[in-house]
Amino acid sequence: MPSLAGQFLIASPYLPDPNFQRTVVLMVQHDEEGALGLVLTRPINLTVQQVWKNVSGEQIDAPEFVLQGGPVEGPLMAIHQEEELSELEILPGVYFSSQRENIEPLIREGRKAFRLFLGYSGWAAQQLEDEMQVGGWLTLPATQEQVFETNNEALWKSVTGEVGSNIMRESLNLKRMPQDPNMN
Asked: Number of C-alpha atoms within 13 angstroms, CB side, residue 69?
């Protein structure tokens, strides 16, 4: 299977794990050793401002909510638009960082959009592929605009609507359908 990095995973109703009900996951890394993604639709009751005060003692103006990136504990992580602070490019103009020296300037300076995460979604080798094979996940190429959408319901509706349209288009095989309906 080709890498899913830079794709959205959309939890289908067939995925039994309640951690992912109604979620959109941005895939950060995916290879034969496993996968790492961040849930974009699970804000937690903490703001960037509160987390930063706990981490650094500094008071900043950052009212955005931190996201629960998934059920696996891990370091503070960010997706952002600052290439010089990146550790990995996820898709054009969207970068990933987990090192404090890269996350600090994102939060302090706040020049461009970023999203901050506690926890992540992780899969062992072949685990994600197995979940996909039984229909647990749908995929869609991610866009920069959707990645930084802060209205979770709008993101969910946009992504699921696009996936639904793609499924219908494929199942109806519209490429072979004549232009003139009278030709059917």
From this structure: 25
Question: What value does the CA radius of gyration of the chain take, rounded to a whole number of Å?
Answer: 18
Q: Which amino acid is at 6?
A: G
pTM higher than 0.85: yes
Whole-number pLDDT of residue 168: 59
Cα 100 to Cα 116: distance, rounded to the nearest angstrom = 12
Q: Decide if 132 contacts 4 (C-beta within 8 A).
A: no
| 114 φ, ψ (degrees, to nearest 5) | -150, 160
Per-residue pLDDT band at 178 (split at 50, 70, 90):
low
Looking up tokens 């300076």, which residue turns up? 109
Q: Report in angstroms the alpha-carbon separations of 58 from 11, 33, 55, 76.
A: 37, 38, 8, 16
Taking all residues of the chain, what is their mean pLDDT, rounded to a whole number?
Answer: 88
Rounded to whole angstroms, how far apart are CA atoms 36 and 122? 5
Q: Where are the domains of the chain?
A: 7-183
**H helices, E strands: number in the chain:** 5, 11
Q: What is the pLDDT of residues 87-114, one digit of tens each?
A: 999 999 999 999 999 999 999 887 789 9
Please give the pLDDT value at position 130.
93
Q: Which CATH code, of 3.90.550.10, 3.40.109.10, 3.40.630.30, 3.40.1740.10, is assigned to 7-183?
A: 3.40.1740.10
